[in-house]
């Protein structure tokens, strides 16, 4: 709770289902009011997005060390119409229901559930699919790839957070950015998030999706995630969003001692595997539940 309070200066109740405030004059103050963010997103779909907004996820420069408050997703400056605001209230309601389903399926880490409740998943979908954003399913994002199912996103992060440091994660690496959704969720549970994508148009899609959320602690990289990011390592958490026949050694080598890596492993039959590094030369592996992910592939396209 102390940790949660630090990372979420505003109570969750002020993030979700917030009634539009009577005083909207102070629009430049950054708050995680998703209603306004969502409304700005709805607006941004009908108007070209500005490429000059700060806080986009630039590839390669290290994340700024920011105070907890600035890790919140900032309110975009665009003014929301009343209609947009009420439609975004609907998305908050369905997002809450999605999180309730995820909790019912067994995810109980409050910080993960709060993060899932904060991130507007529909902002990561093509407009044609955004009405399905909150169903518990993986959905296409183009290039034969999918945004992961909400349950598995939450579950993997929960497993990664269940560490000896009471869930504190300094540096986290995600392999397979896709549309950027899981990276956004990770940004609320880790100090620094690095995410690698091997398909250039998806790397760019993720940048565009993350830009309006102005997340300061996510850095996107275009490259082969099987090689990790040796220049940034070690990581105390690594999540693979694509399934290989085994976890690449390079990633094992880039874990801190005490670090946790969560990955789907297998081809047709896949299982979630937790790998913990217990010393310089020793790792333990635990097989968890069945899962289904797109394949992990080498190289870039
Ligand atoms: N994290 C995403 C899921 C994306 S699907 C989400 O939030 O929903 C998995 C992604 O892994 C795909 O975009 C795929 O292109 C990518 N991928 C597969 N192999 C990879 C590799 N070696 N390096 C980086 N990305 C890879």
How is this structure best described in words?
Belongs to the methyltransferase superfamily. L-isoaspartyl/D-aspartyl protein methyltransferase family. Its main location: cytoplasm. GO terms for molecular function: protein-L-isoaspartate (D-aspartate) O-methyltransferase activity. By secondary structure, the chain is α/β, with parallel strands linked by helices. It has a domain at 90-290: Rossmann fold. Helices cover 30% and strands 20% of the residues. The chain is built from 9 helices and 9 strands. It has helices at residues 2-7, 12-15, 34-46, 82-104, 110-118, 150-161, 181-186, 200-210, 249-253, and strands spanning 139-142, 145-147, 171-175, 192-197, 218-222, 235-240, 255-266, 270-279, 282-291. Strands 5-4-3-6-7-8-9 form a 7-stranded mixed β-sheet. A two-stranded antiparallel ribbon has the order 1-2. β4 (192-197), α8 and β5 (218-222) form a beta-alpha-beta unit. α3 (34-46) crosses α4 and α4 runs antiparallel to α5. Bound molecules: S-adenosyl-L-homocysteine. S-adenosyl-L-homocysteine (SAH) binds next to β2, α7 and β4.
What tags apply to this protein structure?
301 residues; alpha/beta; two-stranded antiparallel sheet; 9 helices; 9 strands; globular; disordered N terminus; binds S-adenosyl-L-homocysteine; EC 2.1.1.77
């Amino acid at each position: 709770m102390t940790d949660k309070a630090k990372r979420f200066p505003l109570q969750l109740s002020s993030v979700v289902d917030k009634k539009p405030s009577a005083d909207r004059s102070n629009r430049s103050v950054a708050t995680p009011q998703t209603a306004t963010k969502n409304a700005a997103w709805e607006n941004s779909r009908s108007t070209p997005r500005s490429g000059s907004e700060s806080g986009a996820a630039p590839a390669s420069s290290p994340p700024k060390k920011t105070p907890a408050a600035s890790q919140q997703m900032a309110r975009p400056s665009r003014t929301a119409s009343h209609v947009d605001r009420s439609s975004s209230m609907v998305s908050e309601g369905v997002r809450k229901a999605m999180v309730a389903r995820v909790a019912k399926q067994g995810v109980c880490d409050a910080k993960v559930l709060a993060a899932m409740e904060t991130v507007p998943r529909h902002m990561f979908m093509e407009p044609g699919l955004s009405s399905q954003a909150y169903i518990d399913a993986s959905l296409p994002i183009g290039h034969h790839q999918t945004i992961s199912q909400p349950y598995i996103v939450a579950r993997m992060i929960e497993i990664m957070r269940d560490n000896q440091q009471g869930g504190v994660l300094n540096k986290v690496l995600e392999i397979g950015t896709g549309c950027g959704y899981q990276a956004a969720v990770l940004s609320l549970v880790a100090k620094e998030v690095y995410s690698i994508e091997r398909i250039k148009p998806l790397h760019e899609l993720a940048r565009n999706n993350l830009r309006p959320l102005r997340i300061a602690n996510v850095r996107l990289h275009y490259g082969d995630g099987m090689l990790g990011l040796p220049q940034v390592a070690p990581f105390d958490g690594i999540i693979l969003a694509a399934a290989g026949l085994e976890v690449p050694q390079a990633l094992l080598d880039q874990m801190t001692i005490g670090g946790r890596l969560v990955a789907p492993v297998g081809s047709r039959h896949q299982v979630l595997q937790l790998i913990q590094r217990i010393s310089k030369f020793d790792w333990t592996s635990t097989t968890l539940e069945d899962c289904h992910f797109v394949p992990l592939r080498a190289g870039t396209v």
